Amino acid sequence: MIANPLALADWRRQVAELYGEVRRYEDPAAGWQHWRAARDRLIRHHPQSPLSTAQRPRFKGLPFFEYDPRYRFQVSLDQPETAETQAWHLGADGTIMLQPIARTFGLAEVLGGELTVFWIGGYGGGVFLPFADAHEATYAGGRYLLDGIKGADLGSAGGGKLICDFNFAYNPSCAYADTWTCPLAPPENRLPGPVPAGERAEPILASA
What we know:
Blueprint: H1 5-23, H2 28-45, E1 72-78, E2 86-89, E3 95-105, H3 108-111, E4 116-120, E5 126-131, E6 143-147, E7 162-165
Antiparallel strand pairs: 1-3, 1-7, 2-3, 3-4, 4-5, 5-6
Helix pairs in contact: 1-2
């Protein structure tokens, strides 16, 4: 059972509202600054933070690469290479089912590869786009670009294109605490080169 279902519901609500605010910004870089500050507040103060109560006073802010417009894309979506549903095991959290629903088209020229977009099975579902890259300063397990269950979604552009802004890529909770189990990037979403955009993998706590 979830330790604090109401706190989790509030976390999801605040994240969904935050992304709604970001989508209303005409300047993506300004929206990113707003998003970054809000994420710091959530990590520092929210009961659903991956940091323990004892750790939060030492939190010094999430580390990010500087905003780079070269890593904001409007991508077309093709049919996935396979539509076979995958079972991802999350330890004590059980198993989630993810179905490939699309393959991006428009990232390879800059990033060296394309990504599979998944649909999370179960009641409500949601679009899910995890990825990993080869940069030495990013979390090896991968980062999240879209997570529909939490409302982490930058929206779409004209012609049905999906907005993929890697400056908004963020680390899953398990990057900060072993008590969390997260679905990580599958092999088909591991890019061959570095993506110096979004959240970095660096210590976020000041020395005790």
